[in-house]
Specification:
55% helix, 0% strand
């Protein structure tokens, strides 16, 4: 309890806010019908599932890039080559949108 009551660095507070926002979003989307999640609000706009997929994709790529940056040698490229990063098609949003059980 003393650890959680201690002042936290700004980076940790920001991450906590992000985690809370993700949980709030999951709560809002939980149990919405799949057809609604996959329906674009207007033509040429992203559906909810496409938007969440993009968010998760960017989050995963950012985490991999950050981990790489912390351990890379000065002679290594600054960024991980795109062919070594996950593609958006590899991101499964089922658990985020519908919880542990698939829709």
């Amino acid at each position: 309890m003393r650890v959680s009551a201690a002042p936290q660095p700004e980076s940790r507070r920001i991450l906590a806010l992000g985690q809370r926002a993700c949980g709030d979003l999951r709560g809002l989307l939980l149990d919405l019908p799949g057809a609604l999640l996959d329906q674009a609000p207007v033509p040429n706009e992203w559906s909810l599932s496409e938007t969440v997929r993009h968010m998760l994709w960017i989050e995963r790529r950012y985490a991999l890039q950050t981990r790489y940056a912390l351990g890379r040698a000065a002679s290594d490229p600054v960024r991980i080559p795109d062919d070594r990063l996950p593609t958006i098609d590899q991101v499964d949003v089922t658990r985020v949108l519908q919880g542990p059980a698939s829709r």
